[in-house]
Design a protein that fits this description.
With 405 residues, the chain is an alpha/beta fold. Helices cover 38% and strands 16% of the residues. Helix 5 (164-179) links the parallel strand 8 (143-149) and strand 9. Helix 2 (30-47) packs across helix 13 (392-403).
Length: 405
């Protein structure tokens, strides 16, 4: 399709990563950031044309979560475009939501003014984004919008530590997002059940995520002389609803002294993990690591684990990006079969039989006790599958085919 293309995002440009880390009191959303860059780069590769980024930094509000009350407008470059914009906005708590939509509208309004056809890719159903786009669609008939729905607005944050006031506020924002869905022309969904839940009648496709090309991807590793330690590794959000406490309990029931459980991340179960590590020296808590450190840690695991169970409604509407990241590492994965996981992944994941602690413990032991050769072959096949069939070029081709219908 001829015309101009733009990507409205919640990215962290490379040149701002260190500033982000030093000023933010929240954890860096590495998985969301990586997914957006994969989507952007894949779209550009498929289109072979410039795609301009209009970006708002994914930061918390001042003063509680970020140390700056105002974010300055700035420009940054990518391989595909020299004129990308970080949108400036007021970051003061309660005020940021009032001003963000108007700032986004102003930037996109300038981009839309000529009569050339426009395609705007939008990451997430952010209420401020959709409010701005709704206004734009009233002014420009040449604008088409493709929304990439990574999370449902009312299920995007699953921490158990949110106050009642915050839950009410987030539900109001979610309601605003759903009311403004009419401005979207195409939808990219992570799972098929999302379409039913959102009652989508516009064209859509399902793209469950994009594989991360891990360090040493598809390299043949040398067999270690000994395999004394069995390292079970979890890297991700430490929310109770994601099954992290079940993982702790299952590991405690493994009687072998050469087993280790290595955990990194932050979340509402952090204190309980620290306490468990004091009680059992085999449990090692590493806190929050950089993405590069996480990928290196995964490569030395005996097995990787995702303890999220298929026991809540939100599992229908999500495909764990963690699973794709794990599969990309070449290390065997132990996980649960969630409703949102496509059947084509079944040969590459070691599924836990049921939600009992015993079943999780037994599956972890089973895979850890495989021979090195068996684990190596299983991990390699899974890695090959996702890197060849779920890479950014192939996955984003679905998006291009959608907008060309």
């Amino acid at each position: 399709m001829k015309g101009k293309y733009a990507f409205l995002s919640l990215l962290i440009p490379d040149e701002l990563k260190e500033e982000y880390k030093s000023l933010s009191r929240n954890n860096m959303q590495d998985a969301a950031n990586a997914l957006q860059w994969h989507i952007y780069n894949g779209i550009c590769e498929n289109l072979q044309t410039e795609v301009r980024i209009f970006n708002t930094l994914p930061i918390g509000s001042f003063p509680q979560y970020y140390k700056k009350p105002f974010i300055k407008r700035s420009k940054f470059k990518t391989f595909y475009c020299d004129n990308n914009i970080n949108i400036g906005f007021c970051n003061i708590k309660f005020l940021r939501k009032l001003f963000l939509a108007s700032k986004v509208f102003k930037e996109l309004n300038d981009w839309c003014k000529d009569k050339e056809k426009k395609i705007l890719f939008v990451y997430t159903l952010n209420s401020g984004f959709l409010e701005a786009i709704t206004r734009l669609k009233l002014l420009y008939s040449n604008l088409k919008v493709c929304a990439i729905v990574a999370d449902l607005p009312n299920m995007s944050s699953l921490s158990n530590k949110k106050s009642l006031l915050k839950r009410i506020f987030e539900n109001r924002l979610a309601s605003k997002s759903y009311k403004n869905l009419k401005c979207v022309d195409y939808f990219v969904l992570l799972t098929q059940p999302m379409a039913t839940y959102m009652k989508i009648e516009k064209p859509y496709c399902v793209m469950e995520g994009i594989a991360t090309e891990n360090i040493g991807a598809l390299e043949k590793k040398s067999q270690p002389i000994t395999e004394i330690e069995k390292n079970i590794v979890y890297t991700g959000t430490l929310h109770e609803r994601f099954g992290i406490l079940n993982l702790l309990q299952a590991f405690k029931e493994i009687p072998y002294p050469n087993y280790r459980l290595i955990i990194c991340g932050i979340g509402d179960s952090e204190k309980k993990i620290i306490e468990a590590s004091k009680q059992d020296s085999r449990i090692i808590f590493m806190g929050q690591l950089s993405r590069d450190e996480i990928l290196k840690l995964q490569k030395v695991a005996t097995v990787l684990v995702n303890p999220r169970q298929n026991n809540e409604e939100f599992t229908k509407y999500s495909f764990p990006s963690k699973n794709l990241e794990y599969l990309s590492s070449g290390i065997p994965l132990v996980a649960y079969k969630l409703d949102g996981i496509l059947d084509e992944y079944d040969d590459y994941i070691n599924y836990v039989e049921d939600n009992s602690i015993v079943s999780l413990r037994n599956k972890l032991i089973e895979v850890c006790e495989w021979t090195y050769e068996k684990r190596e072959l299983f991990g390699y096949k899974a890695q090959k599958f996702v890197l060849e069939q779920k890479n950014q070029l192939i996955q984003t081709k679905k998006i291009i085919e959608l907008i060309e219908l």
